[in-house]
Amino acid sequence: xxxxxxxxxxxxxxxxxxxxxxxxxxxxxxxxxxxxxxxxxxxxxxxxxxxxxxxxxxxxxxxxxxxxxxxxxxxxxxxxxxxxxxxxxxxxxxxxxxxxxxxxxxxxxxxxxxxxx
Length: 117
Known about the structure:
The protein is built from 7 helices and no strands. It has 117 residues and is mainly α. The N and C termini lie far apart (41 Å).
């Protein structure tokens, strides 16, 4: 137990590894930067975190079968213009399209839905 009476976290299994001091310092710095960026607003913080963990669309679209953008667009069910907009990260797919892309690519829909900064 810690001095304030609360239990300290300890890893329960091999997957819950304790991070090295360097990694903990980098995580703390990234967390501090996010809080500063969002000025402590939890909604903005959640949005910024989602933005940072989103899979880049060129990776998602690269996983769709097809030799040309036109073939990929047809397989997904969107226009070539929409596909190019996604490719350039100017927009992200709707929830319905993200679910369709997840079926085609096996990339989770929540990773496809986020926006890139």
